[in-house]
Write a structure and sequence with these properties.
Strand order of the largest sheet: 1-4-6-5-7-8-9-10
Shape: globular
CATH superfamily: Alpha/Beta hydrolase fold, catalytic domain
Number of strands: 10
CATH architecture: 3-Layer(aba) Sandwich
Number of helices: 8
Radius of gyration: 22 Å
Number of domains: 1
Distance between the termini: 55 Å
Helix content: 25-40%
């Protein structure tokens, strides 16, 4: 009897699940960047391993900088356009992968929804690599503290942080998995505030390489997404902006260029916390400019959709699949596969 039960269990594990999909290819590439030459720097004697005799290292020469790393998963039978996922400040493409609490993230959700998915690490982040500073990057990198993320990402009030998890004060009704906050902060990486031009160039190059597509952006990635659509409105078939922290100014950018690019702007809960009213106002002004030029913008505050308690990291919240379902529903209603 026991062996029969074991056999049944093995068959059940081997059988296809409701959300199964066939993958054709998993791969990666670097895109963008330029070659920079440095000269006049002092040579150094460096030991690379404990006990190793130092050797001379010459820092002068040519360097590839400003490149961006992209990982992709392509389906055997996609039913929708590819989805490009761009992360926020001080983070990497891990934002979209497995959530800090161990549940599947939006990379898997949109694969299951029928899209090829491209997840990138922006210039200077993750596997895109750094460059020397101050010779190439201006100044040193910035690092985010655990406390800053607690408040800035609207997980808890500013005075609610404590190194002891038992003493932390979170937002009432938060959907963020509080027990996974320390795990989440392991994703934090250094960032520079002087690389927007390089980063935008790399994102534009990515769009030109793999699109037509749908671009999904988060936080700092918002402004890059808005401008990528402006640069290639024929290739970006839709832009989904998840709590973008910046936007083009209508007096400096021609909103009519994206009149045929449907925009979705998604906002979580607790939006009265600083600095979010300022960030939200920038996108509201850009949305007004797009609509004034005859374009289509869907402004989606999640509480009005019946989804409450979402933090800034709403793709990691406990109800993140419900949020993703709202986005996919919008995509099906507003985007056609060319």
């Amino acid at each position: 009897m026991r062996s029969i039960l074991a056999l049944v269990g093995a068959i059940a594990l081997a059988g296809p699940a409701a959300a199964d999909y066939r993958v054709k290819e998993i791969g990666s590439f670097h895109v963008g960047g330029e070659v920079v030459e440095l000269s006049g720097l002092d040579k150094q004697m460096i030991s690379f391993t404990k006990g190793m005799k130092p050797i001379e290292v010459d820092p002068n020469g040519n360097f590839n900088v400003g490149q961006m790393y992209v990982q992709y998963v392509k389906l055997a039978e996609p039913t929708g356009l590819p989805v490009l996922m761009w992360h926020g400040g001080g983070l990497t493409g891990v934002t979209w992968e497995t959530k800090p609490d161990g549940d599947p993230g939006w990379q898997q959700f949109f694969l299951e929804a029928g899209h090829d998915v491209y997840v990138s690490d922006a210039v200077e982040r993750g596997r895109s690599s750094w460059a020397r500073y101050p010779e190439i990057y201006d100044g040193p990198p910035l690092f985010r503290t655990m406390k800053e993320g607690w408040h800035l990402f609207r997980i808890g009030p500013q005075d609610g942080w404590d190194i002891d998890p038992a003493k932390r004060v979170a937002m009432d009704g938060t959907q963020f998995p509080l027990e996974a906050y320390n795990q989440f902060t392991k994703q934090s990486v250094p960032r520079w505030v002087s690389n927007d031009v390089r980063t935008q160039a790399a994102y534009n190059a990515l769009v030109e390489k793999v699109c037509p597509c749908i671009v999904v952006v988060h936080s700092q990635g918002g402004n890059f997404g808005y401008n990528a659509a402006l640069a290639n409105p024929d290739l970006v078939k839709a832009l989904v902006a998840i709590e973008p922290s910046g936007a083009p100014k209508a007096e400096e950018a021609d909103a009519s260029r994206v009149a045929n690019v449907p925009h979705l702007m998604v906002w979580g809960d607790y939006m009265d916390m600083k600095p979010w009213p300022t960030f939200q106002a920038a996108s509201r002004a850009w949305a007004d400019a797009i609509e004034g030029a005859g374009g289509t913008v869907t402004w989606m505050p999640l509480p009005e959709e019946g989804l409450t308690g979402n933090s800034h990291m709403l793709m990691m919240d406990k109800n993140s699949d419900a949020v993703a379902a709202k986005i996919e529903e919008w995509i099906k209603a507003n985007v056609t596969k060319d």
